[in-house]
Amino acid sequence: MIYLFTGFIFIFLLCRFVLPLPLSPRQKMAAGALLFVLSQQNAFIRSFSVSMASPEVAPSLLVFMGASTAALLFLAILVLLRDIVSLILLAGRRINKRMNPVFSPGRRGILLAGLSLAPAVYSVNQALATPRIRSLEARLPGLPGDLDGLTLVHVSDTHISRLFQRDWVSALVEKINALNPDIIALTGDIVDGLPLQRMESMTPLRALRARWGVFACAGNHEYYADYERWMRVFPSLGINMLLNRHEVLRLNGQEVVIAGITDIAAQRYGLPLPDSAAALAGAPEKALRIMLSHRPSEADDCARAGIDLQLSGHTHGGQIVGINQVVAEFNRGYLHGWYQVDNMMLYVTSGAGLWNGFPVRLGVASEIAAITLRGAA
After folding, report:
1. How far separated are the first and last CA of the chain, in Å rounded?
2. pLDDT in tens, 289-305
3. Which segments of the chain are extended strands (E)?
4. CA quadruple 85, 86, 92, 93: dihedral positive or negative?
């Protein structure tokens, strides 16, 4: 998918940016070749990786790849805006030819290229930052008074990898533990790569502390590199994996069901698909029910199953404001924040990390969601 998207960007920039430049044919050919390489660098780097989900290359190269891909995207947006403005001016016959010497095609090209670099560098810097704390309240009808004030820390999409390594994970764990939560919920895409490659960076997760435990579900990226071994590794780190099953917690004299489902990526590997009914089999009917589902698109099924609160990730909040609604369209309209789905509340986090093939955030900050449960007014 990423190759196709960047391929369209390459074709557009070749036709509307490179070819109109006042360069010799040889220079245009060289510029076009460079543009093609930058647009398809994720495809080239795949040959060095177990999978595209985990490019095993130097972090500095991953940063360069992210920044250059972002620069191409922003350049394409600027060129498109330039063309739209030019058409409007042409239609209105308001083109001022006296401006041509100042804004020649060459100078316009340099200006647009320069303007695309600033947001690219900034967006990669934002993507690599330690997530901020986002304090929230979930108002749930019928919540027992003894559970009012229960705190959950919801973290998704850490994508621990060559880009997000041990120091970043340690800083994340420190922030989570400082919240002193009752429950920690990790909603998938915890890691990219094989256990042998990632264990050093994963070890800080052992330090996660919550009064009633650390629970998680699988995301699509868990399936891309030795899923079954990861499902044995996570419990050794103190993470209770909920794969189409649930646990019953007894908190302040009340029962709380915390359940989790698998991810639809399981289909291509012949593994169990998400099954909310199986996850809740035998669960107390009148208990508060919390579901961990990596994808928010499972919300309709979870609502029908009688879930009170679903926690999800996967979307990364769309990563770039202005075009993030495209991501929402691929996730049944769910992108980031609170949603009411029948009688169920759904929270979709923007995520803590990112897939390292496109580490870019612009106007969509990473987060650690600190959720306090409250009874509905």
Report:
1. 45
2. 999 999 999 999 999 99
3. 132-140, 151-155, 183-187, 214-217, 240-241, 245-251, 254-260, 288-292, 309-312, 337-341, 344-348, 367-375
4. positive
Domain final position from 100, 127, 154: 127
Q: What is the mean pLDDT of the segment spanning 167-195?
A: 97
Number of structural domains found in the chain: 2
pLDDT value for 105:
63
Q: Which long-range contacts does 240-244 make (Cβ < 8 Å, 24+ apart)?
A: 240/213, 240/214, 240/215, 240/216, 241/215, 241/216, 241/217, 242/215, 242/216, 242/217, 242/279, 242/292, 243/217, 243/218, 243/272, 244/272, 244/274, 244/275, 244/278, 244/279
Q: Provide the residue range defining the domain that includes 38.
A: 2-127
For the entire predicted model, the pTM comes to 0.91
Which CATH number is 358's domain given? Answer: 3.60.21.10
Model confidence pLDDT, tens digit, residues 110-141? 888 888 999 999 999 999 999 999 999 999 99
pLDDT of 99: 46
Chosen domain end from 92, 127, 162: 127
DSSP 320: B
Per-residue tokens: 6? 């960047």
